[in-house]
Amino acid sequence: xxxxxxxxxxxxxxxxxxxxxxxxxxxxxxxxxxxxxxxxxxxxxxxxxxxxxxxxxxxxxxxxxxxxxxxxxxxxxxxxxxxxxxxxxxxxxxxxxxxxxxxxxxxxxxxxxx
Length: 114
Hints:
With 114 residues, this protein is largely without helices or strands. The chain contains one helix and no strands. The mean pLDDT is 76.
């Protein structure tokens, strides 16, 4: 069945490489004449120099501060009080479970009875 390995033909010899053409440099761009110099036009005279502005007057202190003008200083709340106030706002948004039924429903289920 197997008569042996098939014979492989010998490869043809490669042709000799041809020499690459010598690189040529591109021609320089044509010289362009420069545009004429702009004609000097008469400019408007500069405005007169303004002296440096004076410093604003210092703020005046008032002596008798009324109760309305005094700053309000709030006492710092504890972390527990802040958490309690935040949770009291969100508790108004919760929907109570098992409302509107006369008989007690299963625990934790908000499905009306049949």
